[in-house]
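As a warm-up, study this chain.
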Amino acid sequence: MAKPLVRRRLGTVFEATTIELLDEACRAFPRIQDPQDSEGLHDFRVALRRLRSLFKDYIGYFPARAPRKLVTDLRDLARSTNTARDAEVMLAWLESQAEGAPAAERGAIAWWKERLSAQVDDEYAGLKGSVASFPLLDNRLRSAVKSLRKASSKTPRFGAVSAEVLEYLTGKLGEELSAMRGREDEDALHRPRITGKRIRYLLRPWRKEGELFEKTEASMKAFQEAFGDLHDDLVRAEVLRTTVHQHVWEETELRLEAAVSTSGARAMAPRHLRGFMGLVAQHEQHTENNLQRVMALVKGPNRQQLDTCLAEAIAYMRG
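Now compare it with the structure written out below.
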């Protein structure tokens, strides 16, 4: 019978978790180039993020260290997929806005979608080269964690180390939540999302340890997803405004060319400006709603429940 997770050695759990995440990345890897699989890149990126978080949280507890180049290469590989995934997510959002939209907004969406679809195609074409190094990195990571475990046979208990890391992250999250003042400081709204992700990833190996961890992970998920939705809104708002400027510039250039080449050309507003104005107004209201949702979570009873769950999880990990 396997030892309880709280009593197992860090090296053993670290290696097993790394292999599990690498297996997930390997399964997602060939799906990236499948045009019918819209979640392949997402699943690949999630596995890489979890790997990075695992190394960040635990590598300092090993007497021997993994080569820094491996960690850097893992970071660079993850970052190389950012632009393609961002464009893909933006396109999915744009398509979701078309159904039931007024005619003016549909015109703006069609104009943007044509350009964004071409961008997604270009980004995916470029992905083939940027992720080509993954199979080699996969082999190097598997070899490195195996060597790390063998060279660090007397690592501390996984439970004790997890408790220490979770206690640090819980304190960090509390400070970040207390520092929030509203939308005027977007960086302050961004930080709890990142820390929340790290906590969720840390809790993942414990998900089969009983109801406490199911409840803790569910509570943390509600927080992290709320911050994630708000973050997506804030990023999208900036892209939306940039796209409006692009549309106005392109249309103005067409008007100026017509003024030069066509006698009696009329001055007209950009074709889809009204539609974009509607999209901006609608998106702004959506962002405000998500901001209120986040602030309610931070100050309401859900925050107290989260704090209690995390404290109980830390106590359990300490045994």
